[in-house]
Structures are given as C-alpha cells and as structure tokens.
Amino acid sequence: MGSLPTVVGVDGSAAALDAVRWAVLDAHLHMSDLVLVSAMSLPKALTGVGVLPEPVVEQSNSEIGRILDEAAAIAASENATVDTKTVSSENSAVATLLDLSTTSRMVVIATRGLGGAEQRSLGSIGFAVTTHARCPVTVVRGWSGDGVDHSSHPVVVGVDGTTASAAAVELAFEEADVRSAPLTAVHSWSDADLSIGFPIRGLEWPENRPAAAGQLAHMLGPQTVRYPTVPVRTVVVKDRPVQALLDHAQGAQLLVIGSHGRGGYGEMMLGSTSRSLLARAHCPVTVVPSPGRRLARITGNGTGYLDGSLGHVEQFGDRSGS
C-alpha cells in the first residue's frame, strides 16, 4: 500500500482498541499499512543486578503478545483488506512511538489507557507524543465509528496564520478529500478574550471582521485550488479560539490543529490552545507538528520499523490489501 504506515499504540485498554478502530479507517482511506505497537519497559534496576528473572520476562512477553493479538483481531474485523503488522518493544511507549514517528504518516493513540482512569485529560504518554512526534498524531477518545456519515460530518481545522496552522490546513484538506467530507475552517481574530477590560479604539470587531475574513480566505487559497471538490465553510470569530473550535467540533468527525499557535515558536512545547482542545474535544483530534519539527523526520521508504531495533515484528499475511 502506501509508503508510510499508520501507527497505533495499544496497551490492552478499551480506549486503545477504539484508537485501533480509528487507525484502521485512517489506513484504509490513505492506502497505508497499519502497524500495531505495544511497549512494556521492564524496570531492570529493581533487581539490583540489572537482570530480571526469566519468568518475569516471559510473563511480560506473553502479555504483550495477548495485547497485540487482541488488537490485530479488532483490526481484521474492522477491515480485513488493510495490511497489518505488529511491533513489540522493550523500550518505553513514548520512546517507541517517537522513534516510529520519523517513518510514519500518522501516529494514533488513545487519550488515556491503562495508566489513567480519567478520560477528560491527556495522559503523560499522549502529552509527550503530541509534543515531540515528527509526524501528525491523532488522539482518539471514545470512538467506535458506528453511524459516522463521512459525507455529512465535517472535518474542522483551526487557522491562525502561523506556519503550524498552515500545515494543519494542508492536512485537513487532505482528510476531508479522502472522506468526501465538507471542511469547516475556524479563524479567531484574537486569542485573548476581548470582552474583558475597557474597549480599545481600533479594535472594534465590526470594523475588523471583513479584514479577518479576507485573511482567512487568503490562508485557505492554495488548498482550495489543490482540492477544488472539497466544500469549505469559513467561520470567523472575534476571540476565544478554544471555545469556537469546541463548538464546531461537536458535530465533527475530526478536528485538526497545529501544535502551537501565534504565541509560540517552531520547537516549543504543545501550545495552550492545543492542550485545551485535546482535553475537551469529543471527536478525534489530530495535532500537526511544526514544519521545523517535521523537517527532522526520516523520509525514506517508510520501513524503518522493520529494522529489528524495536523488538519482534510479525506480519499478518492473510490481511494484505490490494
């Protein structure tokens, strides 16, 4: 299939299996392979000699195998034509997924897995991966795919004029195109809440709204030419971008955002707007890394995950697609 795979992290939790279901759809739409990844880093230092007892290692390997088998069965039941592989790693989940992000088109993770019960916040693994990954990362919460009409549920993208949001716009158009879905582009004129404090002359919204709408049209221009069949709805609001994006994401099948906004710089940590959306959005959220971070990724043939450095790799030959 495609040269770069869709990678999904699994840990045996129900949330991770929802992420698998979304990743199968993503791989099918983009004609890419699917790579199921499970990592279990064992604390060798606890033994004092740096070597774990063989039964502990065997139990760990058995548990990883069970987790991957369950995820592979889910993937096959969702779409048996997607070419599926499994990767088991003795490294940490964060290190494994970040390594794979250099040769992947997408990394997919659940909001929180076995490490946390609260689904309304982003776990430590999710925060680290979305902050440092070299490819886009989709965070999935409670997604089963049942009843999703791709032609009516839009893809929503946040647009703020930064290079990070330009990359998000490009990906959002691509996702809308492969889904035959409409696109809603949301642009907030100000990141601040302008209802607080005294009115400032020259910042009156009615006078500035036409310019903001024109700026949004300019930012979307190259992609509307590239994807002429994607229906585009533009939304321009005065302020509070998080609330505007959450409002429009309620009926969306996907929300696409940049890793940071107008207050950030190329290699900064995940921006406050992105963090809020990841914690509060009800639909899957794709975080697109800054161009500077993506430049560092390896863009070879996309088979870096088969070099043996991450552990055992198994090919499910009976699930190969056309």
From TrEMBL:
SUPFAM superfamilies assigned to the protein according to its UniProt record, in alphabetical order: Adenine nucleotide alpha hydrolases-like
Coiled coil regions in record: none
Signal peptide coordinates: none
Domain UspA: from-to ranges: 7-141, 154-289
Domain of life: Bacteria
InterPro entries associated with the record: Rossmann-like_a/b/a_fold (IPR014729), Universal_stress_UspA (IPR006015), UspA (IPR006016)
Entry keywords, A to Z: ATP-binding, Nucleotide-binding
Family: Belongs to the universal stress protein A family.
The protein's name: Universal stress protein
The species this protein was found in: Rhodococcoides yunnanense
